[in-house]
Amino acid sequence: MIFPCDKCGICCNHINEIPELSVFDSGNGRCIHLTENNLCDIYETRPDICNVEAMYRKKYCFEMSEDEYIRANIAGCNELKRKYTA
Ligand code: SF4
Ligand code: SF4
User: Fold this and answer.
1) Is the CB of residue 12 below 6 angstroms from any atom belonging to ligand 2?
2) Which listed ligand is nearest to 44 at the C-alpha?
3) What would the 3-class secondary structure string for the chain be?
4) For the segment 53-76, what is each residue's pLDDT rounded down to a tens digit?
5) Does the Cβ of 15 fall within 6 Å of ligand 1?
6) Does the pLDDT at position 51 exceed 90?
7) Which is the closest atom of ligand 1 to the Cα of 6?
C-alpha cells in the first residue's frame, strides 16, 4: 500500500503540535518550508518526522506491518482534516 498524501498541507500548517519541528515554525504553526502551493521546498532533505517511508523503515517496522502503518497515518491525516476544516 502506498501512502496517499493529497498535498492538502494541513500537517505542515500545524507543526506547532510537533516538537521535532519547532525550529521550522514561522510563529503561527506554519512551516517556513511550506510554499504557497502547499509543497515542501526541502522535500528531498526533509526531516525524517516528515517522511512517512523513512519513519517506517527506522522505527515502526519493528512494531507493525507496512499496511497497518499506512492505515494509521491515513487515520491521522483524517483526524487533522476534521480538526482544522470543521
Ligand atoms: S495532512 Fe496528510 S494528506 Fe494532508 S498534506 Fe499532510 S500528510 Fe498529506
Ligand atoms: S519540512 Fe517540509 S514536509 Fe516538513 S513540515 Fe515543513 S514543509 Fe512540511
Assistant:
1) yes
2) 2
3) CCCCCCCCCCHHHCHHHCHHHHHHECCCCCECCECCCCCECCHHHCCHHHCHHHHHHHCHHHCCCHHHHHHHHHHHHHHHHHHHHC
4) 999 999 999 999 999 999 999 999
5) no
6) yes
7) 3
CA-closest residue to ligand 1 atom 6? 11
Residue 17 has pLDDT above 90, yes or no: no
Using CA positions, which residue lies closest to atom 4 of ligand 1? 8
pLDDT grade for 86, boundaries at 50, 70 and 90? confident
Domain ranges of the chain: 11-85
Q: Give yes or no for residue 14 CB within 6 A of ligand 2.
A: no
Mean of all residue pLDDT scores within the chain = 96
CA distances from 21 to 25, 49, 56 (A): 7, 8, 18
